[in-house]
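USER: Fancy drafting a protein?

ASSISTANT:
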Amino acid sequence: MHFTLQNTRGQGPAFDPEAVLDSLEGDSGLLLEIVGISLVQFPRHMEKIRESIRKKDPKNLERAAHALKGAAGNLLARRIMNASSILEDMGGASSLEGAEKALVTLEEELERLQVELEEFKNEHSRHD
């Protein structure tokens, strides 16, 4: 089975706070809370994904990638959701061919998102 990676790198910001705020009906406190939780959860999910690939464990890869996709969904982080979905599908199909490449894409996108989230958190935490 072959999984196609979409090249979405470098296409606009990874995080659109206005869109997320709109989905939260303007609750900026909740947005800051979600950002803070995400910054803690994302590395945990990534470690589980890396470990699953390293151990060639498709079932746990599927679970970990699904969890990251859900967490990214809270921030409408579509590129993370898409990259996670590829790994989730690989795990579900018990086919880890290309998982390392998909992981690199996910890591690059997640690093970019985390930088944007840190900047957002720092900028908006000062105003509270």
User: Anything to note?
Assistant: The CA atoms of residues 117 and 123 lie 10 Å apart. The domain at 20-123 is CATH 1.20.120.160 (Four Helix Bundle (Hemerythrin (Met), subunit A)).
